[in-house]
Each structure stands twice: as C-alpha cells, then as structure tokens.
C-alpha cells in the first residue's frame, strides 16, 4: 500500500513538473502575444492540478488524513485563471488589433464588445439622455 | 419574502461548504459560521446578481465536469506536443467565431471559462449583442471543426443544465 502510494504521488509530481516546464518554455518559444497567452493558462490546469492531487493523496496516505485545502486551491484557480486570461486577451485586442482583422461575430451583432464606443450611446438610449442638446 | 432573505440558495450552500473546507475541520463552529457567511454574502451581492439562475438538470453537472477534466488532460498533452514539436512557422493560430445558443449569462460564463481552461483555445471576447464568442486557437488548421466541437461537447450539455 505504502509503496503503491509513493509511486502514484511520484508520477503525479513528475507530470506536474513536466507540464509546468513545458508551459514556461512555451511562454518563451511562442512568438506572438496571442499564442503566448496559451502557454501559461495551460500550465496551470494540468501542472498545478497534478501537484495538488499529489499533495492531497500524500496527506491521505501518509499523514493526518484527508485535507480540503488543495481542492479549494484548484477551485479558486479554475475560477480566476479564465477571467485573467480573458482580460489579457481583451487588452491585447483593444490595443493591437483592429475589428477588420477579426472574423465577423455574425447574427445582428455589429462588432465585438471591446470595440464598443462608450461615448456613442446606442440609438434607443439617445431619446432618454437628458443632457443631450436639442431635446 | 423568501427571495429577499435567500436570494441565491445554492450560493448560500456553496459559501458554507467552501468555508468549512477552508477551515479544514468539520465542527459545529465552522458550519454555523459558514452558514452565517452564506446568508450575508448573497444578500450583499444580490444587487449585482438580480436574477436567480435555474438549474434544470443538476445531475448533468457531474457528466460535464468529467468531460471537461478528460478534455483538459487530452488537450494538455496535445498542446505540449505542439510546443515541443512544431516550429513557430508551422503553427496556424487563428480566430474562431462560436455562435451561441445559450442565453443565460451564467451559462455563457461557464462556457467561456471552460474554453479557456481547455488547452489550445482562449475565449477572448463576446459580441456586442452577447450572441457570439470570439475564441483564439493556438493551432487550428480547420476553424469550423473547433467551433463545432465546442458546440457539441460543451454547449449542448450546458444547455441541458441551465436552460
């Protein structure tokens, strides 16, 4: 039992190290800002995920019993990482891309929400705007 | 009346469970304090989250989580192979438009988060009417296949859960 537990924990730690290393290497190797964004968001999923599972199993097998902290770390990570990636992508779109370079959103949408002009209210909003001159 | 006191019953439960797990011991003390937080936090944040999402098929969540975990493992290996094995010049990064059938904001949030956590794709933006998602792919020789896979694997299941 104990040798089996050690093997499982070791394999998970090795996998975590491998994917963490590949993620960091990808950050250097990839050459465009948007493709670079892929490497670190991926390293967190399986790299950090395996090290957390390894820690959980270690405490389950060899120490005081089950702990929930690793579960909480992965939960918070899975909630926050996509939001951060989304904001980095949005900032990148806002600064370095033009709407013409992106595919059309289709349907009745005019454009992507990054390019919405805040100082240019939509047609149905102008009627309700009391500060608008001439009304 | 009940809506005022308990704007999000599921959030109350989740906050209480998360608190007990953070404390890491299951005692009456922790459970009671978790429930107190679970009552206060939804009431304070109710102004920013007025609608209550409906869960039509909660059992489907388990299947969804399993599918996502399997996809994360599979795609992590694919992305590692791409990073290690392909030259930058051979990569075909590109944008994909994913038209959305989902309408509830919670479901779209979960879908966008899933797309980002699945290696190879990052959800970058929403269209201004909220009916399409802009996804960046690390290596997509066939953008339509990526959109079709996202719709079939994730969106179909989320539609069963939320709508």
Structural description of this entry:
The complex is a heterodimer of chains A (135) and B (163). The N and C termini of chain A lie far apart (81 Å). In chain A, helix 1 packs antiparallel against helix 3 and helix 3 runs antiparallel to helix 4 (69-96). Chain A has 135 residues and is mostly helical. Chain A has 5 helices and no strands. Chain B folds into 2 domains: 2-48, no CATH class; 60-162, Alpha-Beta Plaits, CATH 3.30.70. Helices cover 59% and strands 11% of the residues of chain B. Chain B has 6 helices and 3 strands; from the N terminus they run H-H-H-H-E-H-E-E-H. Chain B has helices spanning 2-5, 9-23, 28-45, 60-85, 105-117, 143-162; strands at 94-99, 121-126, 132-137. The two termini of chain B are 25 Å apart. In chain B, 33% of the residues are buried. Chains A and B meet through helix 1, helix 3 and helix 4 of A and helix 2, helix 4, strand 1, helix 5 and strand 2 of B.
Question: What is the N-to-C succession of helices and strands of chain A?
Answer: HHHHH
Content-based structural category of chain B:
mainly alpha
Tally of structural domains of chain A: 1
| Rg calc of chain B | 19 Å
Number of strands of chain B: 3
Relative strand content of chain A? under 5%
The SSE string of chain B, one letter per element, is HHHHEHEEH
How many domains of chain B, as an integer?
2
User: What is the fold-level CATH name, i.e. the topology of the largest domain in chain B?
Assistant: Alpha-Beta Plaits
Our measurement of the CA-to-CA distance between the termini of chain B, rounded to an integer number of angstroms, reads 25 Å
**Global Rg of chain A:** 23 Å
**Could you say what the CATH architecture of the largest domain in chain B is?**
2-Layer Sandwich
Query: What is the CATH class designation of the largest domain in chain B?
Result: Alpha Beta
Q: Give the oligomeric state.
A: heterodimer
| Total strand segments of chain A | 0
Poorly predicted regions of chain B are: none
- Overall geometry of chain B comes to globular
Strand content of chain B: 5-15%
* Unreliable parts of chain A: 123-135
* Main sheet makeup of chain B: 3 strands, antiparallel
């Amino acid at each position: 039992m104990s040798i089996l537990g050690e093997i499982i924990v070791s394999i998970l730690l090795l996998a975590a190290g491998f994917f963490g290393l590949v993620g960091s290497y990808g950050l250097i190797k990839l050459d465009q800002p948007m493709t670079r964004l892929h490497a670190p968001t991926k390293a967190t999923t399986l790299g950090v995920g395996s090290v957390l599972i390894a820690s959980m199993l270690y405490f389950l097998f060899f120490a005081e019993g089950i702990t929930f902290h690793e579960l909480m770390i992965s939960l918070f990570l899975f909630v926050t990482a996509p939001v951060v990636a989304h904001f980095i992508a949005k900032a990148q779109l806002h600064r370095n891309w033009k709407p013409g370079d992106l595919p059309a959103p289709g349907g009745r949408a005019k454009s992507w929400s990054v390019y919405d002009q805040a100082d240019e209210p939509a047609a149905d909003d102008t009627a309700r705007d009391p500060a608008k001159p001439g009304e | 009346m009940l809506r005022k006191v308990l704007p999000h019953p599921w959030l109350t439960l989740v906050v209480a469970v998360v608190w007990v797990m953070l404390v890491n011991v299951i005692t009456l003390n922790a459970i009671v304090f978790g429930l107190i937080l679970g009552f206060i936090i939804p009431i304070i944040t109710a102004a920013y989250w007025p609608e209550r999402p409906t869960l039509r098929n909660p059992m489907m969540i388990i299947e969804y989580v399993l599918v996502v975990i399997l996809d994360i493992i599979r795609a992590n290996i694919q992305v590692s192979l791409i990073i290690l094995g392909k030259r930058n010049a051979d990569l075909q990064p590109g944008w994909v438009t994913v038209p959305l059938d989902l309408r509830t904001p919670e479901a779209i949030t979960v879908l966008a988060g899933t797309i980002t956590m699945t290696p190879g794709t990052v959800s970058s933006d929403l269209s201004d009417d909220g009916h399409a998602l802009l996804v960046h792919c690390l290596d997509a020789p066939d953008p339509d296949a990526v959109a079709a896979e996202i719709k079939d694997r994730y969106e179909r299941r989320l539609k069963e859960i939320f709508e």
